[in-house]
């Protein structure tokens, strides 16, 4: 196909459309802008701010909020493009930044925790403190879980979820025990108990937080608001502004919505909020049923006006005509915008990726030659629903010598479960002197060994007396020994197969150590022959046992097993030595291209990483019912639909939708 020449994006211009003019001319005290992708909702908010400033002779006090920091940056950029400079009297903040400012005005100490290593150490100290508490309890299940390494990522995810959804309040209102509440909400009980201990240590006996990490300021303000009656004023948000504007309404969670309500009902002038409620995909947001707009409206004045913006400036008629019946929306294109929507069908995953290779060649060669340049505009952007779907893509494009990048997902060979499997392959089938695998892969394997094998990399022991008093031991925050040890060990294992075997068996390079008893050590100690076929190796029962016994939640366990299957499918029929050799060449070549700053012509993105962004050329592969959108419980079905919407609305000039021939998604609706 001939690639469209999207020259309208080379000279951007900002003029109000008829739909935007409705917002600018409205005199309503509260407005919700329901805007589709690429319709300029952020620009409309900024135009409204400029109008308000102009009407009040430049003396208006206006607060413009966004849910994310990226949203704040976008607002500031748009204001400068519209106004030349940032107007005086205009504050542009996230909800978290607003709440931080309120707490500072209250006069309490405001120590911010932004060091992830320090926070990790505090989580580990909370684990030690909870273990001390369990000496007086009889909870064998919790004690066994706490005795293992903490999954820091899982803890951080649960902490964010608890604070966004205000789950502590829900649990108290439910009257259920924490154990029953976690079972009912599909939450990890042990991780929740650890969160409660960590939060108890952070806040202290007197309820005065010792520090605030990201999200804690909003959580603290919500705690203060929870002490008030529904209509009782909150003095810190009373009569501070002449107008409040909010972008990214679709990402609101319970905590942010509580703060926003007090702000809007605090005599702060008019309110204008904007959102694309088809992009409501974040876990922790308060609704996945598509009722977000109605839920927000219930928290605003009764006469709140809802205005729609459907005319998109991002893409043209072809993409609009594909999206409208699929998602039951009403995109309207600008007449001068040219674009292309190309549906393709595939029979197998290999067939799907082969088509991606062909599309990449068209984009990289056709577009760059037409424009006389290479780089961002000549890249094909592939948006994936599941990380496991990148395995075959990376493998094939790696063999093609394409310089690709991953955003929102890790390259498949650096994922802990994959790297550990690769290291075990080499340890069993490798020969002395072979420098298979890279230090980066081995470093990820060391992390995987600790994470899935219940082996601690070690951390500085805290003072048990301070922990017993629910206090953190802050005597010397330094880089975690475990992290440093992991990198050092990985470097020493590179090219030394005997050293690698010993480390897997003993969990250390100390010659005085005794062998480990976990599944990883059992694999090297097994007497039976291991298959030389790399695909069959990945399906071995002992290898699967690692993840069956690992101290991880079921969601992560399923992801690990999905990775093993994807790796097995990729490597089937290839001898282990050949597979590792080919992979090492691909990775080494990728490192060389990165160091030489060769342009990236393929981006592989998660949906979360693509949200809020736009690209010239987008391909959405592996689209079929039951896969993308994936199978889900009823309450999550709308979120799955929205994920496909986000992926398909990122393109400016060309969108390729690759659908499974047996289970196509179109004609819809999803």
Task: Tell me briefly what this model is.
It is built from 28 helices and 14 strands.
Task: Give the tags.
DNA_helicase_UvrD-like_C, six-stranded parallel β-sheet, 28 helices, Rossmann fold, nucleotide-binding, alpha/beta, 670 residues
**Count of the domains:** 4
Task: Give the N-terminus to C-terminus distance in angstroms.
Answer: 28 Å
Return the CATH topology of the largest domain.
Rossmann fold
Strand order of the largest sheet: 3-2-4-5-1-6
Sequence stretches where pLDDT stays below 50 over 5 or more residues: 1-13, 371-376, 478-482
What is the count of helical runs? Answer: 28
Query: From the 3D coordinates, which CATH architecture of the largest domain would you assign?
Result: 3-Layer(aba) Sandwich
Categorize the overall geometry: globular
CATH superfamily of the largest domain: P-loop containing nucleotide triphosphate hydrolases
Question: Which structural class is indicated by helix and strand composition?
Answer: alpha/beta
